[in-house]
Design a protein that fits this description.
Blueprint lengths: L6 E7 L5 H17 L4 E3 L11 H4 L10 H13 L2 E3 L3 E4 L6 E8 L5 E6 L5 E3 L5 E3 L12 E4 L2 E5 L8 H9 L4 E3 L6 H19 L2 E4 L3 E3 L5 E3 L2 E4 L5 E5 L8 E7 L4 H8 L2 H6 L6
Parallel strand pairs: 1-2, 2-3, 10-11, 11-12
Antiparallel strand pairs: 1-17, 3-5, 4-5, 5-6, 7-8, 9-10, 12-15, 13-14, 15-16
Helix pairs in contact: 1-3
Length: 282
């Protein structure tokens, strides 16, 4: 009898400026995911707090060791019996000087298995006129992170990291077979680049890509693109969540992670072998 493929839940949110409300939505999403048979759930970037007003958000931002958000998420993981990729949350760096945009992977027993700080800062001025300077408040991480999970060896990244393929090559070199890309893409960049970049990362690494996204109009005044995606190692889109018009606190998609899909894609197009056999000095 063939092995049953593990199922992951991808949760799309429209997170706001109230951490309590956001955590309640995450708890409800985990209950739904567990009831549907998922073994792991993935949340978007800034799942617990999405607030561009740095003065207003400041009272909520503390070091990881002092964070009530993390304690709450660990309790949810235990109660629902799920592994949780928390997307990301704003925290203070260990020295308290700056903020970090941190992903955490929590086991079903509530233990923390990995943490990753977003490396690439979103410092851009878009054709739409939007200007973002993430580095004004956040410091970037310095190292790629890969962690073993029930659905495969997971490589971590966040949002703007998506545009830097060298990061994903480093994650694959560390054994990643599935890539997490929690995001809060703007509408204009999402319409132009979201689908093609995620499919490209999946194809060039022969990995599953799980990209839980923020989607809709947020309390802090921004709008995000949504379209949380799951892409298989051949580049096929397995799930695509549109932005809800009903203003629901979350939307959820379930995706089976076929264990042999990575091997099949890498055997069909042996990128690692081709790369090692090249003659160019790159």
């Amino acid at each position: 009898m063939p092995a049953v493929s593990p199922v992951v839940a991808i949760v799309q949110m429209t997170s706001g400026i109230d951490p309590g409300a956001n955590l309640a939505a995450m708890d409800a999403a985990l209950a739904e995911a567990a009831a549907a048979g998922a073994v792991m759930a993935f949340f978007p970037e800034m799942s617990v707090l999405l607030d561009r007003d740095r003065t207003r958000s400041a009272p909520h931002i503390v070091r990881e060791a002092d964070s009530p958000w993390l304690v709450g998420l660990q309790d949810m993981s235990r109660r629902h019996g799920l592994w949780v990729h928390a997307g990301s949350m704003p925290l203070l760096s260990d020295d308290g000087a700056r903020r970090v945009n941190r992903s955490l992977v929590i086991g079903s027993d509530g233990s923390i298995h990995a943490r990753y700080d977003k490396i690439h800062m979103f410092d851009v001025t878009l054709p739409s006129g939007e200007s973002w300077r993430e580095s004004a408040a956040f410091e970037g991480g310095r190292a790629p992170v890969v962690v073993d999970t029930p659905v495969g060896r997971l490589g971590l990244s966040i949002c703007y990291d998506l545009r830097f393929p060298e990061l994903y090559r480093a994650l694959v070199d560390e054994g990643a077979t599935i890539l997490a890309v929690p995001a809060a893409f703007t509408v204009s960049t999402g319409e132009a680049h979201w689908h093609v970049l995620l499919r490209a990362r999946a194809i060039e690494t022969a990995c599953f890509v799980i990209a839980a996204a923020q989607g809709g109009d947020h309390a802090d005044g921004r709008a995000t693109y949504g379209h949380s995606l799951a892409v298989d190692p051949w580049g096929t889109v397995l799930a695509d969540l549109p932005v809800s018009k009903a203003h629901k606190p979350f939307a959820l998609a379930l995706v089976a992670i076929e264990q042999n899909a990575v091997d099949s894609a890498r055997q069909a197009i042996p990128l690692a072998t081709s790369r090692s056999n090249r003659n160019l000095d790159l």
